[in-house]
Amino acid sequence: MEANPTAPLLPPRSEVGIAGWAQRNLFANWHNSILTLVSAILVALALWFGLKWVIVQADWTVIVKLGGGFIIGQYNTEAACSGQNCFWRPQVSLLMVTTLTGMAWGVAGGGVARIVALSVGIVAAAFALLPYSMETMGMDVRLLLAANLPALLIGWALARYTPLGSARWLSIMGVLAFLLTLVLLRGLQGVPGLQPVSVIYWGGLMVNLLLAVGGITISLPIGIALALGRRSGLPVVKTLCVFFIEVFRGVPLITLLFMSQTLVPLAFPEDFPQNQLFRAAVVITLFSAAYMAENIRGGLQALHPGQAEAARALGLAGWQTTLLIELPQAIRNVIPAIVGQFIGLFKDTSLVYIIGMLDIVEVGRAFILGTPEYRGSSRELFVFVALVFWVFTYGMSYVSRRVERHLGVGLR
Amino acid sequence: MVADIKSLTYQGVPVWRHAQIIRWVVQIVSGVLVVALVVWFFANVTNAVQDRDIPHGFSFLSREYQTPIGEHFIPYESSDTFLYAIVVAITNTLIVSIAGVILATLLGIFIGVARLSGNWLVSRLALVYIEFFRNVPLLVQLLFWFFIILALPVESDAYNIFAGNAYISNSGVSMAWLSPTNTAASTAWITLVVVAIVAGFIVNRRLNRREMQTGQASYPFMAGWATVIVIGVASWIVVGMIAGGSPFAVSSPEPQGQFMRISGGFTLRAGLLVVLLGLVMYTAAFIAEIVRAGIQSVSRGQTEAARALGLSPMETLRSVTFPQALRVIIPPLISQCLNLTKNSSLGGAVGYSDLTSVALTMTQTAPAVSIFLIIMASYLAMSLTWSLIGNLYNRRAGFIGG
Question: Is B27–A236 a contact, with Cβ atoms under 8 angstroms apart?
Answer without folding.
Answer: yes
